[in-house]
C-alpha cells in the first residue's frame, strides 16, 4: 500500500518536471520510423487555439467596450474598470473573492494536514478513512451546497444543535445574515475540499522516512520538535502545491454561492465569479461582464504563475 | 520504536469519531430523503425515518417537462460520454505526434498546450457563448460536447504526452518492421497500451463535466436540453423547503459518481491529485 502513496507523490511531481524538460531531443537525426501522421494534431491545435487563445483575447478586447450583445458598441477605454473600482458592491465582491480564497486555503490546509498526520502512521484503517474523507471531493459542489443549505436553515440542524447546547442566543438565520452568510459558504467549501489537501499531504508524508523520525525521537526531540524540524521541511513541496492550487480553486467559487445565497443578502456574498455571471448573462452587459472577468483572470493568472514558479522550484530542489 | 500501543488504538478511535461527525451531513442527506413530506418538516434532522418512504424518489423520477430529472440524466450521460470520447480520441492522437516527433513545430505546439492549461477560462466565456450562439451550438448537446473537448483538451494532451514520453518506442518499431502503416501501428499497438492514461483522462474529465454547473447554466440556459446540475438547480428553486424531495434529487445526482468512486477510488485519488487544472 505504501507503493500507492509513492505513486501519488510521483503523479504530483511529474507535471512540473515535464513542463521544464522539452521532449527528448535527437536533433539532426531523423527518427528511424515516422510516428503517426502530422495532421493528427490539427483538430486539437485548432480547438485549443479557438477555445483558449482566440476566446480569451476577444474577451480581453470586450472588456474595453460597452457592448451589450446587440447592435453597436463603443470603445470606452478604462471606463469599465473605473466603474468596478468605484462601485462599493463590486469592490465588496473583489474582497469576498479574496476572503473566500484565502480563508478556505488556510482552513483546508490546517484541517487536511492535521487529519493526514493523525492517520499517517500505524492506524489499521487509514485507507478506509482516507477513502471516506476524500469522498466529498468527487461530489458535485452544487449538490453539497444543498445539503448545507438545509443545515443552515433557521429550523435546521445547526440551530437545533445550538438550542440543545443551551446557546439559543447564537441561533440566527445564517444564510440571510449579512455577516455570517459568507462564513456559511466558507464552511461548505472547506467541508468539501479538506479531503483534497489531506490526500496531497498524505502523499508528502509518505516521503518522510520513518527512520529519521525515530532517530529524532531517540535524540530527545519531542512531538513538536519532530513536527517542525523533520516533518515540515520534508512536506514543504506539498504545502506549496496544496496552497497554490487551493487559492486558484478558491478564487473561482461559484456553484455554492448560487445555491446557498445567490449573492445575497444585499450583495453580502457576491464574488467576481457571481458578478461576471450576473452582469454578462443575466443583464446582457457583455462589455462590463468581460471587464469583471478580466479582473478575475488577472488575479487567477498571478497565482497560477506563482504556482508554476513554486512547483518548478520544487523539482529543481529535488534533482 | 513506533508500535501499535493502547495510545494508537485511542487515536484510531478518536479519528473515527471525528470522521463520523464530519460525514454527518451525508447521513442527514440520506435519512431526510427517505422521510415523507410531513416527517421531513417536523422531525429532527438526525432522527431516522419512522418508515422508509421512497415517495420523494418516485416523485422526482416521474417529473416531466423541461426540468425532468430523468431527461437531464440522459443529457448529462450523453454530454459526459461524448466529451470523454472526443478527449480520448483527439487528445491521444495529438499527444502522440507531439510527443513522438522531434520537430520544432511539435515543441511549439506542446508549449501552446501547456500555456492553455495555465490560462484561466473565465475571460473566454462571453466570446465563446456569442460564437456558439451565432452558429447554433448553444442549447444542444453537440455544442456542449465540443465546448468541453475544447476546454479540457490541453489537460488531455498533457496527460497523454507525459505518458507517451515514458513509453518505449520498441513496440511501434516492431510493428513498422512487420509492415504496419502509421495508422495501424497507433490503433492496434499504441491504443491498447495507453489505457492507464485513458483512465486518468476519463476520470478527471468525467468528474469535471458531470459535476459542472457554470458552463451548463450559460450554454444550455433556457433550452429544452438541460444537464443534471442545472435541472437540479431549477427543480430545487421551485420547491419551498420540500427537503425530502430536494435531497432525493441530490442523492440521484451523486449515485453515478459514488458508484465509480467505489470501484476505482485509488485511481480517483491519484488522478485528482495529479492532473487538477486551475
Brief write-up:
The complex is a heterodimer of chains A (319) and B (278). Chain A is 71% helix and 0% strand.
Count of individual helical segments of chain B = 15
Q: Give helix and strand order of chain B, one letter per element, not per position.
A: HHHHHHHHHHHHHHH
Helicity of chain A, as a percent range: over 70%
- Which band does the percent of strand residues of chain B land in? under 5%
- The CATH architecture category of the largest domain in chain B equals Orthogonal Bundle
DSSP strand tally of chain B = 0
Main sheet overview of chain B: none
Q: What would you say this structure looks like, in words?
A:
- The complex is a heterodimer of chains A (319) and B (278).
- The two termini of chain A are 26 Å apart.
- Chain A has one domain: MetI-like (MetI-like fold, Orthogonal Bundle).
- Chain A has helices spanning 2-20, 42-62, 79-86, 88-120, 126-138, 141-151, 157-164, 181-205, 210-218, 223-251, 255-260, 272-282, 286-318.
- Chain A is 71% helix and 0% strand.
- Chain A contains 13 helices and no strands.
- Chain B has 278 residues and is mostly helical.
- Chain B has two domains: 6-53, no CATH class; 69-226 and 261-275, MetI-like fold.
- Chain B is globular.
- The two termini of chain B are 42 Å apart.
- The relative contact order of chain B is 0.14.
- The interface between A and B is large, with 114 and 110 residues.
- Chain B: The chain crosses the membrane at residues 12-34, 73-98, 110-130, 142-164, 185-210, 242-264.
- Chain B: It is a multi-pass membrane protein.
Descriptors:
heterodimer; A: 319 residues; mainly alpha; MetI-like fold; 13 helices; disordered N terminus; B: 278 residues; 74% helix; globular
Provide the fold topology.
The complex is a heterodimer of chains A (319) and B (278).
Chain A: H1 2-20, H2 42-62, H3 79-86, H4 88-120, H5 126-138, H6 141-151, H7 157-164, H8 181-205, H9 210-218, H10 223-251, H11 255-260, H12 272-282, H13 286-318
Chain B: H1 6-22, H2 24-33, H3 37-42, H4 55-61, H5 69-100, H6 104-118, H7 125-134, H8 141-165, H9 170-177, H10 182-193, H11 195-211, H12 214-219, H13 228-237, H14 243-263, H15 265-275
Amino acid at each position: 500500500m505504501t507503493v500507492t502513496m509513492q505513486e501519488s507523490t510521483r503523479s504530483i511531481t511529474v507535471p512540473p518536471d515535464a513542463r521544464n524538460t522539452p521532449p527528448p531531443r535527437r536533433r539532426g537525426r531523423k527518427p528511424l520510423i515516422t510516428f503517426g501522421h502530422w495532421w493528427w494534431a490539427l483538430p486539437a491545435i485548432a480547438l485549443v487555439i479557438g477555445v483558449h487563445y482566440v476566446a480569451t483575447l476577444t474577451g480581453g478586447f470586450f472588456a474595453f467596450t460597452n457592448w451589450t450583445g446587440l447592435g453597436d458598441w463603443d470603445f470606452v477605454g478604462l471606463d469599465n474598470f473605473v466603474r468596478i473600482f468605484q462601485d462599493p458592491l463590486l469592490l465588496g465582491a473583489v474582497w469576498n473573492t479574496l476572503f473566500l480564497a484565502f480563508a478556505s486555503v488556510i482552513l483546508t490546509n490546517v484541517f487536511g494536514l492535521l487529519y493526514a498526520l493523525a492517520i499517517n502512521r500505524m492506524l489499521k484503517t487509514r485507507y478506509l478513512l482516507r477513502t471516506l474523507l476524500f469522498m466529498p471531493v468527487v461530489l458535485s459542489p452544487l449538490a453539497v451546497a444543498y445539503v448545507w443549505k438545509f443545515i443552515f436553515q433557521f429550523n435546521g440542524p445547526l440551530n437545533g444543535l445550538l438550542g440543545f447546547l443551551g446557546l439559543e442566543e447564537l441561533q440566527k438565520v445564517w444564510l440571510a445574515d449579512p455577516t455570517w452568510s459568507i462564513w456559511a459558504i466558507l464552511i461548505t467549501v472547506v467541508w468539501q475540499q479538506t479531503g483534497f489537501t489531506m490526500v496531497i499531504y498524505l502523499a508528502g508524508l509518505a516521503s518522510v522516512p520513518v527512520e529519521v523520525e525515530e532517530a529524532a525521537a531517540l535524540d530527545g526531540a519531542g512531538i513538536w520538535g519532530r513536527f517542525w524540524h523533520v516533518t515540515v521541511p520534508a512536506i514543504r513541496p506539498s504545502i506549496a502545491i496544496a496552497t497554490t492550487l487551493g487559492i486558484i480553486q478558491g478564487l473561482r467559487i461559484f456553484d455554492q454561492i448560487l445555491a446557498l445565497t445567490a449573492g445575497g443578502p444585499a450583495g453580502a456574498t457576491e464574488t467576481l465569479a457571481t458578478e461576471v455571471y450576473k452582469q454578462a448573462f443575466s443583464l446582457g452587459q457583455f462589455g462590463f461582464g468581460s471587464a469583471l472577468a478580466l479582473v478575475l483572470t488577472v488575479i487567477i493568472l498571478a497565482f497560477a504563475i506563482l504556482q508554476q514558479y513554486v512547483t518548478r522550484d520544487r523539482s529543481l530542489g529535488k534533482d | 520504536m513506533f508500535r501499535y500501543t493502547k495510545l494508537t488504538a485511542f487515536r484510531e478511535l478518536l479519528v473515527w469519531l471525528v470522521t463520523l461527525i464530519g460525514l454527518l451531513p451525508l447521513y442527514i442527506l440520506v435519512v431526510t430523503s427517505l422521510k415523507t413530506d410531513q416527517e421531513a418538516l417536523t422531525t429532527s434532522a438526525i432522527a431516522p425515518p419512522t418508515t422508509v418512504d421512497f415517495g420523494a424518489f418516485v416523485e422526482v423520477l416521474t417529473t416531466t417537462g423541461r426540468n425532468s430529472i430523468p431527461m437531464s440524466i440522459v443529457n448529462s450521460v450523453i454530454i459526459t460520454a461524448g466529451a470523454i470520447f472526443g478527449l480520448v480520441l483527439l487528445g491521444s492522437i495529438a499527444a502522440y505526434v507531439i510527443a513522438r516527433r522531434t520537430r520544432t513545430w511539435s515543441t511549439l505546439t506542446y508549449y501552446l498546450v501547456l500555456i492553455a492549461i495555465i490560462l484561466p477560462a473565465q475571460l473566454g466565456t462571453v466570446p465563446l457563448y456569442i460564437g456558439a450562439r451565432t452558429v447554433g451550438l448553444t442549447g444542444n448537446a453537440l455544442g456542449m460536447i465540443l465546448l468541453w473537448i475544447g476546454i479540457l483538451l490541453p489537460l488531455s494532451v498533457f496527460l497523454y504526452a507525459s505518458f507517451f514520453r515514458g513509453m518505449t518506442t520498441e513496440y511501434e518499431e516492431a510493428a513498422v518492421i512487420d509492415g504496419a502503416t502509421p495508422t495501424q501501428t497507433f490503433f492496434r499497438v499504441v491504443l491498447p497500451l495507453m489505457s492507464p492514461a485513458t483512465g486518468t483522462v476519463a476520470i478527471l474529465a468525467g468528474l469535471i463535466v458531470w459535476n459542472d454547473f457554470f458552463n451548463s447554466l450559460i450554454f444550455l440556459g433556457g433550452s429544452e436540453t438541460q444537464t443534471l446540475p442545472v435541472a437540479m438547480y431549477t427543480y430545487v428553486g421551485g420547491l419551498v423547503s420540500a427537503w425530502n424531495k430536494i435531497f432525493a434529487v441530490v442523492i440521484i445526482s451523486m449515485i453515478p459518481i459514488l458508484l465509480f468512486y467505489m470501484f476505482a477510488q485509488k485511481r480517483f485519488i491519484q488522478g485528482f491529485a495529479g492532473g487538477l487544472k486551475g
